[in-house]
Amino acid sequence: MAKQTKKQKSLNEKLGDNLKLYGVGEALQALRDLKTTKFDETIEVAMNLGVDPRHADQMVRGMVSLPAGTGKTVRVAVFAKGDKAAEALAAGADKVGAEDLMDDMQAGNLDYDRVIATPDMMGVVGRLGKLLGPKGLMPNPKLGTVTPNVAQAVKDAKGGQIEFRVEKQGIIHAGIGKMSFSDADLTTNFGAFVDAIIKAKPSGAKGKYVRKVTLSSSMGPGLKIDTAQLTNA
After folding, report:
1. Radius of gyration (C-alpha) of the chain in whole angstroms
2. Mapping DSSP to helix (H, G, I), strand (E, B) and coil, where does residue 162 land?
3. Tens digit of pLDDT for each residue in 16-72?
4. Torsion angle of the four alpha carbons 233, 173, 131, 105, in this order, in degrees rounded to the nearest 10
5. DSSP secondary structure string, 192-221?
6. Which of 55, 71, 103, 157 could bridge to 114 as Cys pair (CB 3.0-4.6 Å)?
7. Contacts of 227 (CB under 8 A, 6+ apart)
8. H or E element, residue 176
9. Which secondary structure element, helix H or strand E, spans residue 183, and what is its range?
């Protein structure tokens, strides 16, 4: 058995019972107490769901707006022309274009967190499938990123809207804010995220849907949340 470092030993002593179930506020306080880094860590939620996303009727995917924002600067690219391009720029898009934006992305400039497109631009965007698809950036009408209302889509992306998608093992995770956020803001964001996942329960889910919820910080341990406190879980 590997010998524990002083830091690990101290962490284990502070945590005590690793089987303990935490309330959200209690978990946030524990993560603050355990913080050893100087940077503003992200608070992350991981949920183990009773789904197998290899089956289409068990896929969990969507968007949720975090009321208190994410604390991150979100870079948004928009495929649009004419008035729609002007609307996207006015709403705060970082880059707007058509074929020129496609060329720019093909040249390797893909430093974006969200890509949005008007429906008429999907012929151009489709040629970027192999670049945008693996990065999870491909515009999608179901997620509201293919839309004539590009201004609202840009504002949503900049204002705290995040995408969620279940992974192969049935786990879904997301950052819900920064350690510097107040407990109230983080708790509100946590509730919005969990509610969105519960509402997105697919028709093919069998048995218990929300099996485990963990709250952690970028460099901190994962603390198990008492799912009995979650409504409708």
Report:
1. 20
2. strand
3. 556 689 999 999 999 999 888 899 999 999 999 999 989 989 999 999 999 999 998
4. 110
5. HHHHHHHHT--TT--S-SEEEEEEEETTS-
6. 157
7. 210, 211, 212, 213, 233
8. strand 171-178
9. helix 183-199
